[in-house]
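Re-running the complex after MR caught last week's input typo. The corrected sequence lines follow. Everything else is unchanged.
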Amino acid sequence: MSAVIAENSAVAAVPSPKKPWVNRRESVRDTVPSLIIAVGVAVASVLLTGLAGPLGFYVTFVISFLVASFVSGLRHDSVKAIDKAMATLITAGFVTAFIPWVSILFTVFKRGASAFYLGYFTNDMAVTSADDDLGMGGLSHAIVGSVIILAIASLIAIPFGIITAVYITEVKGRLRGLVRVMVQSMSGVPSVVAGLFIYAVVVSKFGFSGVAGALALSILMLPTVARTAEEVLKLVPDDLRSAAYALGASQTATTFRIVLPTARSGLITASMLGLARVAGETAPLILTAFYSAIFSLKVTGQPLASLPMYVYQNFTTGTDTALTRAWGGAAVLLGMIFILFILARLSGGRSRR
Amino acid sequence: MVEGPPRRVIPNLRNAVDKRFSRIVTAGAMSTFVVLALIALFLLVRSAEVFKEFGISFLTESKWDAGSGDASQPAVFGIAAMLVGSVIVATMAMILAFPFVIGVSLFLEYYVGKKIRAVLVAILDLMAAIPSIIYGLWGYLVLMPHAAGWASTINKYFGWIPIFSVDVENFDASPFISALVLGMMIIPIACSVTREVYSRAPRDQIAAAYALGSSRWGAIRAVVLPFGKSGLIGGMLLGLGRALGETIAVLLTLNLVFEVKFQVLASAGGNVASLIASRFGEATPLESKALMAAGLILFILTLTVNFGASFIVNRSTKDAS
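Corrected-run output:
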């Protein structure tokens, strides 16, 4: 026994500490040959066999890369081989999931751009039909309609969302567990059901209107605002509250003058995320605000246009120019949501773990 | 014994203003209850007539006919085909999304560095915010030509399995294509939960696995995956709730047919939410009540799934903390 130990220590003096979880250079050096082999196999199979196109290339590439990384790992042992194969598989899963999204962004902005011209943002579709030349008409009515509907929806959903969050974190009411569950299940209400509800309550009496659309969207927006606001208010340090109480402030004053101002940027984030969540909702608007081709600021008594409905209308028309218009609307809509998202990020109140 | 200072009377911190404040806030917070209750109530009242007239056959019948208005052709409404179709599409979407949810979550938490992760997570959040109409538009115009080809290939080699068979060689607007689109939509939603739970896997156990000579995958299999199991299930259920209620993306990519069918590659399927959106424009009074009834059933279905999901997610995050 002691002889063995003595022999070992003679061979390897002091083993340097290893960090197996750190990506080392050699793992990169190991990967490159497998990558080259995989590309080679994929190119060969696309050229020589029945597999064709980018999809055939991608599938054979992933499979051969998987095999190559497994084999290259076998030079060490089977554990290493499985580890490398799984790393490849997981990376491939991630990349595969991202491809369609890249495709969506690419198509929306590429095809949408062909609908754009200067008047696209200032004209409406009152005297232009979906089949008319792309140099005519526009979506100013849809942009303005969307902005109006979203503004009214925020006027309802943001205060209620924040009040709900205040109830959970500040007032700490007895029912806060239940309220939280309710908020969660409310976020699962299908958008079309929210539309049906507002149809039954409002539209069946007063007809389609922008206000009805805003009410439906506020139902969908409230849970997002409430949940994000709750997270944000929880980040306000308890010391601040204690300090306020110690100075003799009432709970009301503490909430309004300490907690909410501290969390202001986070609350803006919550509102932006809520807006981004509902800005593209179409199904509830079909049942509530419907669509009008004419520029209008009137929010009651008549249908009001919106970007998602503009896309939907042009899609159902289905001709080439109409579809191009649909892509144009989609690009504007997506741009709007991205801006909301960037604003949410910039105000920077998202919780960090 | 020395007499201490007189006991101070600590005033009740909740003065009158506070009491009013707390009452107002409580009332505001109850809005969630009120809205949910009102939705259920209104849909129930509006659809009561339909349930009274058709009874259980509203759920078991798969005919949808507004009738001609007289006795010769009475109206018949049943959502069996739509209900089955909804479940089929949502289940397929889950099956398709499942491996990617695991892959994306693991990749983000254990295979990339902190800085790249922050960027990728921001992108993932953004993807969750892409409106369903854009998914539908893309699914119909860009994905469908490809996906119909894939469907035809699957049918060629696996057509002997009943669910992959077709009666007519038309692979457009099938449940398969809708499920692909829905699957893409639920990946970011499910991932946000799953990733969160995976990131809370006990560091000491992972370190212990490494210390015992485990590889990275070994540590993930031994520690992270068992730990995150309920989080994964909860995340997937959340996605399922979303998939069941999704309207517009399915409406654009699925051919609604009133017949209970299990051929997922054929150009015929059903979906409750899309039915509501597609029929509402020209619905007769009784038909719109039938659509309210369909909405009520959809509401109950998604509410149940979401309750289950939030229960499981809450439990798994409680275990973690």
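None of the earlier attempt is carried over here. Chain A has two domains: 17-111, 140-347. Chain A touches chain B through 87 residues (CB under 8 Å).
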